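Good morning,

Attaching, inline, the backbone tokens for the sequence recovery test we're adding to the shared suite. The designed sequence is right after.
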């Protein structure tokens, strides 16, 4: 199913969240959210809260508009609105997130707790952090025309499988990759954004080819 956000002078975030709830209540495990170029969403976070059979499948989000607003002259955030996608570990590898940001997000972009893969491609501008986590492979890619202006850039993969027969738990994860080809620093260049990657049982790789803060990796 799809919940498009058309171009508008300003769309209250409540309208978008209602559209998401309506869409996944069909019910539909999968969700496609398309924020069109020219659309402006304000007033808080766009949020996905899945349940069994509703929004716990393949989640695809594309933003070509503006989630939140900034002062054009100073780049200061004037409305902090973000995108928060909560996953469903219980649905395993069927629960994935694919996010493409070619616009503006001022309140942070988060895709966390997914049972499968998480992939975020950023060629736009994000304020207040870029975060992804899941049980499968996790990747964050900010291109040379993209930027993360504040917060942090963080990707992690972790899961724990419990065997009721043996009574033991096994730590599992996918591989984690961060490619930061765009600036990870405030617009005025004074505050750098830290970058971290963690994989409990796989690989954790970070490639930085732009201004950024501290870089940390940890892998099992």
């Amino acid at each position: 199913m799809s919940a498009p956000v058309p171009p508008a002078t300003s769309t209250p975030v409540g309208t978008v969240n209602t559209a998401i709830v309506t869409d996944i209540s069909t019910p539909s495990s999968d969700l496609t959210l398309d924020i069109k170029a020219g659309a402006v969403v304000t007033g808080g976070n766009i949020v996905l809260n899945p349940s069994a059979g509703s929004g716990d499948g393949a989640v695809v989000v594309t933003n070509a508009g503006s989630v939140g607003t900034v002062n054009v002259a100073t780049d200061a955030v004037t409305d902090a609105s973000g995108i928060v996608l909560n996953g469903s570990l219980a649905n395993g590898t069927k629960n994935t997130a694919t996010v493409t940001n070619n616009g503006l997000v001022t309140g942070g972009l988060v895709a966390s707790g997914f049972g499968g893969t998480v992939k975020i491609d950023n060629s736009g501008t994000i304020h207040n952090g870029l975060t992804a986590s899941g049980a499968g492979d996790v990747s964050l890619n900010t291109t040379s025309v993209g930027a993360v202006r504040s917060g942090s850039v963080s990707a992690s993969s972790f899961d724990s499988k419990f065997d009721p027969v043996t009574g033991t738990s096994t730590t599992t994860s996918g591989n984690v990759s961060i490619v930061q080809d765009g600036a990870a620093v405030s617009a005025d260049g004074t505050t750098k954004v830290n970058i971290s990657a963690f994989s409990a049982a796989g690989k954790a790789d970070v490639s930085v080819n732009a201004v950024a803060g501290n870089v940390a990796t940890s892998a099992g």
